[in-house]
Design a protein that fits this description.
With about 325 residues, the chain is an alpha/beta fold. It has eleven helices and 18 strands. The structure holds zinc ion.
C-alpha cells in the first residue's frame, strides 16, 4: 500500500519539536510546529504549503524566521494556523525586520494566517510581501468544527489542549481509500474509464447503494460496485500531540484525536519518577504518553520533546513510553 504521507520529526528527541509531513509524490509538504528548521533542506522548506503551530513557546515557533527567510523571495501562498493570539504573534515576528525593499514589484508572496479559537478556524489574515506584510482584508474560512484544512485527499483536524495556555494537537486523516479491482470490473462487463472518479467520490461520501452510476454507457447501482468492484479501506491517520498537562479532559481529547492512528507522535518530557515535575510544568511523562497511546489503540508510537535532564540516559524515556503502550 502506498502511503499518502511520509512523516518524520525534524530534530532529535531532545531538540526542538517539529514534524515534517511529505505528501505523496513529494509535491507538497506540511509542518506541525516550527522549532529549529536547520535540518530541513531548502527544497523541503520550499514544498511546505501549510504550517500548524501548537503554541507560541519559543521551542515551537523559533523556526518561523527560517521559514520566512527562505519563502518570502518565492511567489506563492503559505498558510499558517495557530492558537488564539497567533496572528499578532506572527505580525510581531515580522515587525522585527525592516521591509523597505519590498514594494509593488516584489515577488508575490503572501502569508495567510488564522487562529483556531473555541474549536473553529477563524478568518485568514493575508500578509503580502508587496504590501510590506501589512495585513489585508480578512478572508472568511468556512470549515467544520475541529477541521483546519480540508483537501480532496485528506483533512487536518485540531484540538486545543491545556498547557496553561492552549496548545493545539493535530491529526492528518486521509480520506477513505477506494481501489479498483480490475478483474472484478471486467467480470461485470465494465471497463476502466473517467466514470470511476465520481463513483469513488460517491463511495467516499457514503452515498446509498441504489444510487445509479453511469459506468461508461452502462448504468449500474453504486452498491454493486461497492460490493464487487472496489476495495474500500480506511485512510492513513497520523496524530501529533505536544505540551499538554496530564488530566482527564486533556487525556480524553488526546485519546479521541489519536484513536486508531497509524502513527502517534507524542511528547514524553519526564520520566514517571518525576511525575511531580510533569504536573508542575504541565507536560506528559513518558508513561502517561504510552498509556494514552495504548488507550487510543495506535499502531506506532514515536516520542519526542525529552527534557535535557535525561541526556545521560537518552533511551529511558522512549523505553518507558513503549512499555506503557504495550501495557507492561
Ligand atoms: Zn514545548
Amino acid at each position: 500500500m502506498t502511503w499518502l504521507a511520509q512523516s518524520r520529526l525534524i530534530n532529535g528527541p531532545f531538540e526542538d519539536p517539529g514534524l515534517f509531513i511529505d505528501l505523496r509524490f513529494g509535491s507538497r509538504a506540511i509542518l506541525f510546529d516550527l522549532g529549529d528548521l536547520s535540518t530541513l533542506s531548502a527544497r523541503e522548506i520550499a514544498r511546505v504549503s501549510d504550517v500548524f503551530v501548537s503554541h507560541r513557546h519559543m521551542d515551537h515557533f523559533v523556526g518561523f524566521d527560517q521559514l520566512l527567510r527562505l519563502r518570502h523571495t518565492r511567489p506563492g501562498t503559505l498558510r499558517l494556523v495557530g492558537p488564539p493570539g497567533f496572528v499578532d504573534g506572527v505580525r510581531a515576528r515580522i515587525a522585527g525586520y525592516s521591509w523597505n525593499l519590498l514594494g509593488p514589484r516584489s515577488v508575490d508572496f503572501v502569508l495567510h494566517v488564522a487562529e483556531l479559537s473555541k474549536g473553529r478556524l477563524g478568518p485568514w489574515t493575508p500578509l503580502r510581501a508587496r504590501d510590506a506584510f501589512r495585513p489585508g482584508p480578512e478572508i472568511a474560512s468556512d470549515l467544520p468544527e475541529g477541521v483546519v484544512l480540508s483537501d480532496p485527499d485528506f483533512t487536518i483536524e485540531a484540538v486545543a489542549l491545556d498547557h496553561g495556555i492552549p496548545s493545539l494537537a493535530f491529526a492528518l486523516q486521509e480520506q477513505l481509500r477506494v481501489n479498483v479491482r480490475a478483474e472484478a470490473l471486467a467480470a461485470l462487463g465494465l471497463s476502466v474509464g473517467p466514470w470511476l472518479r465520481p463513483a469513488k467520490t460517491a463511495i467516499r461520501a457514503g452515498a446509498p447503494d441504489d444510487l445509479p452510476v453511469d459506468a461508461g454507457g452502462k448504468v449500474v447501482p453504486l452498491g454493486l460496485l461497492r460490493e464487487r468492484a472496489f476495495l474500500v479501506a480506511p485512510g492513513q491517520r497520523l496524530a501529533y500531540v505536544t505540551d499538554a498537562a496530564f488530566h482527564a479532559e486533556n487525556a480524553e481529547r488526546i485519546v479521541s484525536l489519536a484513536r486508531g492512528a497509524d502513527d502517534l507522535y507524542i511528547e514524553a518530557v519526564f520520566l514517571h519518577e518525576d511525575a511531580d515535575l510533569g504536573a508542575d510544568r504541565r507536560h506528559l511523562t513518558a508513561r502517561q504518553a504510552g498509556e494514552l497511546a495504548r488507550e487510543a489503540g495506535v499502531h506506532r508510537l514515536v516520542t519526542f520533546h525529552h527534557s535535557p535532564r535525561y541526556l545521560d540516559r537518552p533511551g529511558d524515556l522512549d523505553r518507558e513510553a513503549q512499555r506503557a503502550a504495550r501495557g507492561e
